[in-house]
Structures are given as C-alpha cells and as structure tokens.
Design brief:
about 160 residues, about 35% helix
Length: about 160
Amino acid sequence: MSTTNFTLNVNSKEYTVDVEPETPLLWVIREYIGLTGTKYGCGLAVCGACTVHINGEPMRSCVLPVSGAVGSKITTIEGISEDGNHPMQEAWIKEQVPQCGYCQSGQIMQAVSLLNKNSDPSREEIKSHMNGIICRCGTYNRIIKAVERVTEENK
C-alpha cells in the first residue's frame, strides 16, 4: 500500500504524518506524533484503553483509521490539561483510583466526556457512561467516586 500525507489537529496543534490511510489513529498518535498517554489494550474497540475525543466525543482510536480523523479536533489525555491538573485527574489521585494504571487514560477521557455533557450525573448515569471501559484491577467503585467528587466540587 502507498502512504499519504495527513494533517491532523491533535490537542490544538497541527501534525502532518505520512502513513497508510488505514493506519489506526492510535498508532499515529503514539508512534508518529509521540503522545504515549493513549494506550493499546485490545485492538478491537472493546476495552477502551485507547479512548480519545474526536470533536468532543469519546472514540476508540485503535479501530479508527487515520483517514477518518482528518478534519476533526482530536484530544488525547495529554490535551485535557497541560500540567495534569484537570479536575478529573486531581480527583483520580485523591480517590486513589489506579492500581496498575493502564486503563486510566481511557477511563479519564470517558469520564471527562460525560461531565462535558452532564455536569451533575446520577450514579446510574455515571455507571452507564463508564460501562465499556475495562479496568482489569476492578477499581470501578473508586472510578465512580472520582467522577462523583468532580460533580460535587462543581456544585
């Protein structure tokens, strides 16, 4: 296959990459742009470790071809806060959410997308929205508490 130049808007910066059109956005972000906060988990859009925002919506970057992301505003975990002090990141620390930490960038991106749409979600809305991001360590209760903490702090 032949490669093509694609210009992407990632975290409000323009990047031009020369890759095959079917290359998953995840690998472009990690290998060509050098932002390694977004993780590879399953490669099938099942676990959610690779979650990024595309025009504000959470998307699994492991199955989204780079050609499908052109013209979109892409936000990675590095893009939600320059210095790691996004309220969700701070709540993550305060609630001691991570054990291994592998899923946390996907979890945080999913949680941020919820709170961007609904600043006061119920516990059931949190559970429903976070469903599908797998935490192998089983820290789901702490994840919910972190989202609830941000909700409470925003009131």
